[in-house]
Write a structure and sequence with these properties.
This protein is an alpha/beta fold. It has two domains: 7-137, Rossmann fold, CATH 3.40.50; 156-216, Arc Repressor Mutant, subunit A. The chain has eleven helices and six strands. A six-stranded parallel β-sheet has the order 2-1-3-4-5-6, with helices on both faces. α4 links the parallel β4 and β5 (105-108). α8 packs across α9. The longest helix has 21 residues, at 135-155. The termini are far apart.
């Protein structure tokens, strides 16, 4: 916001009651100028191009383009409008995608009106406002899911013997106990573990033991 001039804001939400509430909130403050109010993402993108607001407050889920898709389009077109996403139930993937695209704010719809106004103020001066209840958990769950997906793919590269040793490690057996159980030397177990670490892109038996082998199994593996 330039000194002495209100922050120009566009809002977009497909729910008339929510949209009306946003309009009333912004019109009730001299800090902000409502430049457009849109019922869907397609019109929001058109109006952002035309009016070039400093801030766009977008619903994540809208007919046509979603809030995240509008954000992606603005980044591709290098428009300077800062985007705040409002959501009642954004998926982890949507949150992660928005963060990767450089979203300026993510706020739950249930947040208080004062929180939204403070979010717009912060975003308008270049700060980032990410909801503490939503974003960290979404990022962590996404990271864990990506790790599981990578482990599942890498899991398929293990030989039957490597798979057997991995599962025994997960059960808490030492190298000596594994060697006795499968009838090989301690040195052979160490060699297998080294190969397993390399294939799964991990560095130690603690990381190997933490994998949920029962959930990673895809199909039958002969032991």
């Amino acid at each position: 916001m330039s000194a002495g001039h209100p922050t120009r804001v566009l809002v977009a939400d497909d729910h008339p009651i929510v949209r009306s509430g946003l309009e009333a909130l912004l019109r009730g403050s001299s800090e902000f100028e409502l430049v457009a109010s849109c019922p869907n993402g397609d019109l929001a993108l058109v109006m952002i191009r035309q009016t070039l607001p400093e801030v766009a407050v977008l619903d994540v889920q809208m007919p046509g383009l979603t809030g995240v898709q509008v954000l992606a389009a603005l980044k591709e077109e290098t428009l300077n409008t800062r985007v705040i996403l409002l959501t009642a139930s954004a998926s982890d993937e949507q949150v992660v995608t928005a963060v990767k695209l450089g979203v300026s704010g993510i706020l739950l719809k249930e947040a208080a009106a004062d929180d939204l106004l403070e979010c717009i103020r912060s975003v308008s001066v270049g700060l980032q406002w990410l909801d503490d209840e939503l974003v960290p958990g979404a990022l962590e769950r996404y990271r864990q899911e990506q790790n599981r997906s990578r482990a599942t793919n890498d899991f398929e590269t293990l030989t039957p013997r490597e798979l057997q040793i991995s599962e025994l490690v997960a059960r808490g057996l030492s190298n000596k106990e594994i060697a006795r159980q499968i009838g090989v030397s301690d040195g052979t177990v160490k060699i297998h573990l080294s190969n397993i670490y390399q294939k799964l892109n991990i560095t130690n038996r603690t990381a190997l033991a933490s994998l949920n082998w029962s959930s990673l199994k895809a199909g039958d593996h002969d032991m």
